[in-house]
């Protein structure tokens, strides 16, 4: 059970980092579009 919990935590961590990076890229892209 401990292994499953850690693996699920790793999956959530990876998804979280992808969401954060995607959000930053989205903000930067929309910012450049607004400037352009």
Kindly list the characteristics that best describe this protein:
single chain; 36 residues; mainly alpha; 1 helix; rod-shaped; membrane; transmembrane; transmembrane helix
What does this molecule look like?
The chain is 94% helix and 0% strand. The chain is mainly α and 36 residues long. The chain has one domain. The protein is rod-shaped and about 50 Å long. Keywords: Membrane, Transmembrane, Transmembrane helix.
Protein topology:
Blueprint: H1 2-35
Low-confidence stretches: none
Structural class: mainly alpha
| Domain unit count | 1
* Rg: 16 Å
The main pleated sheet reads as: none
**Envelope shape:** rod-shaped
Helical percentage: over 70%
What proportion of the residues form beta strands (DSSP E)?
under 5%
DSSP E strands, number: 0
Count, helices: 1
Taken in chain order, the helices and strands follow as H
On the 0-100 scale, what is the average pLDDT? 93
Distance between the termini: 52 Å
Short description:
With 36 residues, this protein is mainly alpha-helical. The chain has one helix spanning 2-35. It has one domain (1-36).
């Amino acid at each position: 059970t401990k292994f499953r919990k850690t693996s699920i935590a790793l999956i959530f961590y990876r998804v979280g980092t992808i969401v954060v990076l995607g959000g930053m890229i989205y903000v930067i892209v929309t910012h450049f579009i607004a400037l352009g």
